[in-house]
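Figure 3 (text version): structure tokens given as input.
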């Protein structure tokens, strides 16, 4: 799980202006349909990263950003959380 979160974080860090759940999932080959829930895997990973303070979303269904990038959603104190296992 740490490896996939790290891959998502790296994508977000490199993106200009953030990425959608679909863009992230397709870039990593994890945006597939599972029991009628397209994007469920990438969406779940992003929600976990948001809870951990490693990523933030502009608005529901908006673009995702790495913590500390593009304004950090007002949560600049969360940037230290990234060290809990994400590889750069």
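Below: residues designed for each position.
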């Amino acid at each position: 799980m740490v490896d996939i979160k790290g891959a998502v974080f790296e994508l977000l860090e490199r993106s200009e202006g953030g990425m959608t759940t679909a863009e992230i999932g397709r870039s990593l080959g994890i945006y597939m349909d599972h029991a009628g829930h397209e994007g469920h895997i990438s969406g779940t990973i992003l929600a976990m990263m948001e809870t951990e303070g490693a990523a933030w979303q502009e608005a529901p269904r908006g673009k995702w950003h790495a913590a500390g990038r593009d304004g950090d959603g007002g949560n600049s104190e969360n940037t230290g959380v990234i060290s809990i296992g994400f590889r750069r």
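The CA atoms of residues 25 and 31 lie 4 Å apart.
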